[in-house]
Design goal:
The structure is a homodimer of 393-residue chains. Chain A is α/β, with parallel strands linked by helices. Chain A has twelve helices and 16 strands. The first copy, chain A, binds a DNA duplex (30 and 30 nucleotides) through helix 3. Chains A, B: Pfam families: HTH_24, ROK. Chains A, B: This is Sugar kinase of the NBD/HSP70 family, may contain an N-terminal HTH domain.
Chain lengths: 393, 393
DNA sequence: TTTTTTCATTGACAGCGGAAAAGAACACCC
DNA sequence: GGGTGTTCTTTTCCGCTGTCAATGAAAAAA
């Protein structure tokens, strides 16, 4: 848990206030009447919830009296004042740390990248703290207090305790990140798995707004998946969920380090694609970008590799959709750079493997640059700043 | 929705009362103090919630003052009086209707089977209503009012409207079951998918009690899966979820009627096993029971078919566990009759395909005879009788 | 200008659940 | 056998929350 923040009290104290606040936060400027309808609270309750939030400066009257009804008294729009509070989000990757300073609406104000010389905690933690310090200095320039720090790390993360249980990618075990970062910076800290953090950002501020069931699939160095069911991000009973990277797609496919054969990640991740294109063309390619170039140039065997990757991704999505029946699947990640190459294959494989009404699911892509991952971390900080009563829908 | 029941008011009106009631219902006789601890309500709130429920006769003081503390005042146990209300659960299969009369604790008091001469609504609906009437007569013998009727049907069921959208097995489309049964019997009716209904029963009264994330996998004529995430049964955005029967396990496997290849259902369902054993042995087997007998007798090709089925089931479970990270998977269904033949294969394939901590998931079997499916339907009726505030955990 | 419609606010009020204290029922200890 | 301590249960009181009903406000329509 975050060390009790002396910094600032939570804006929303009662369930109703949280509900109102998160509704306005996600659904843009709204009239009070509209908030009442969406939350099924009484208009009176909305008024009473809004007042203290306005006095605290978290909500402001929006002067654009945009949507006035055809008849009757015009409505006053209410929106969240993003500038009221700042947050820092940090994403740790294998070779760099990405940090962003966002406002309360999770808009990025400053973004920073910092290369890493190693992956071990002894290297990463000081760099991370230095990054936060830098961003705190930046924040001074805005004259607004930083109210939370969110950190996103790949792997098995216990977000209640703020401990990285095991990150295969970083080779970390039981690193008490929240404690370390909290004592070093004095900020309330949230630590979460990177894909879950990105999912939170999409749920509150992105393509998942208003949806109670959706999935976010990330394609890149690995294949990940964040899930929202019943309006809540899924963590699983043991803190791990959405591990679609090791769904076995093809029992005869390449052997994966996880011990299985034909995992999605062994077919469609960047390293796998690079390996396969190398093997298929015999060329000593240096990076997946070159493989991509080759395929774009029309090389048939490279294209074939991408087609297989697309099919694997499509089938993995089909599995998720069959199991959970989400309303939407958002495809994202660096791997999207090659989207034009396998979009067709993804969709075809998805439609074929999705059973029945599952095909009603809306499949969309969303290019999320690396800073977005750090923004996801900030979103988790915002979420915990607002409080425990974070009902969606 | 159920037509407003003149029959009986809902026992629990406030959220706290519901919480107390469902806690006592699922976790057997409890002391008030224990209820307070589990629900994190104050002891005073528990007392105040219990009183009206006792006056209504739903809760009773349990005279076995079993667990008294080592020191201090002995506690009074409180439990649900099952005899206070009766419910009817009906499951419709292809060739028969199974009906049960249960008490408020979902214990079966009477079970009835009724063969069907056809599957079309014109045949099934009158038979279903006749079955309910019979059970209502039985209920008179107990001198207790029947407070709800639950109906379970396989396929795509809209449980809010009580309409069977599409049941491939019965070849039904848009059958307004709740309306028909409600007007014919005068009972409040709930209609739900059969696997979901069974999942509800397990969640409240079975192997899922106290778990916020688990899966129920049914193996038999088809392969189904019910999911509980965050303490709630998953229905998906469009009312369909848990369709693991058409996860594609083997791209080169037998073609399935769904258009895909190598579906679990095409490998491990009873019809698939029968087909494969026939093909492998060349014998004209009449039923899956004979195939089972052959395999039990040691026929190597029959055993091979079962081994493949087990592997498919294990891998499907592995997929679910990778995606959702449940605490437990309950394997059930008629197909369990052959469990000794493929238990090992299921477990091996599961462990191999479950990634990382997913293997921490507890895999168990539970023989649920056909009456249990009807009991599941009754469980949905009980759930809706108790009211909308049915928090689990 | 009056009416109608919708939005927003106010004040009264019911009720829920918590805190604290009292009471109850036992074991233990001298 | 009477304190003492412990735990369970109930009672009383009280704050707080959100609804209800009524009122006021601001515009379009009549």
């Amino acid at each position: 848990m975050c060390p009790a923040p002396l910094h600032e009290t939570v804006p929303a104290t009662t369930p109703a206030a949280s509900l109102v606040f998160t509704t306005v936060l996600s659904h843009g400027p709204l009239t009070r009447a509209e908030v009442a309808r969406r939350t099924s609270l009484s208009p009176a309750a909305v008024t009473k919830a809004v007042r203290p939030l306005m006095e605290g400066g978290y909500l402001v009257e929006d002067l654009d009296e945009g949507a006035r009804p055809a008849i009757g008294r015009p409505a006053n729009l209410v929106r969240v004042d993003g500038g009221r509070a700042l947050f820092i989000g940090v994403k740790v990757t294998g070779d760099e740390i990405i940090g962003v300073l966002t406002d309360l609406c999770c808009r990025i104000r400053v973004a920073r990248h910092m290369p890493l010389t190693g992956r071990e905690p002894a290297v990463v933690l000081p760099a991370l703290i230095a990054m936060v310090q830098e961003l705190l200095v930046e924040a001074d320039g805005f004259g607004v207090r930083v109210c939370g720090l969110g950190i996103a790390v790949s792997g098995d993360v216990d977000r209640l305790d703020g401990v990285v249980r095991y990150s295969p990618f970083l080779d970390w075990r039981d690193v008490p990140l929240a404690d370390v970062a909290g004592t070093a910076t004095g900020l309330p800290v949230t630590v979460d798995n990177d894909v879950r953090a990105l999912t939170v950002a999409e749920q509150w501020f992105g393509a998942g707004v208003g949806l109670s069931d959706f999935a976010l699939v990330t394609v890149g160095a690995g294949i990940g998946c964040g899930l929202v069911v019943h309006g809540r991000v899924v963590s699983g009973a043991h803190g791990v969920a959405g591990e679609i990277g090791h769904l076995s797609i093809d029992p005869l496919g390449p052997r994966c380090h996880c011990g299985n054969q034909g995992c999605v990640e062994g077919i469609a991740s960047d390293p796998a694609i690079l390996r396969e294109v190398r093997a298929a063309t015999g060329r000593p390619l240096a990076s997946v970008a070159e493989a991509l170039e080759l395929a774009r140039g029309g090389d048939p065997s490279a294209r074939e590799v991408y087609a297989r990757a697309g099919e694997a991704i499509g089938r993995a999505i089909g599995s998720v959709v069959n199991v959970l029946g989400p309303e939407r699947v958002i495809i994202s990640g660096e791997g999207l750079a090659a989207y034009d190459l396998f979009a067709e294959d993804i969709r075809t494989a998805f439609v074929r493997s999705a059973f029945g009404t599952a095909a009603r699911c809306d499949l969309m892509t969303r290019p999320l640059p690396f800073e977005e991952w750090a923004r996801g971390a900030a979103a988790t900080a915002i979420q915990s700043f607002i409080g425990p009563h974070t009902y969606q829908d």
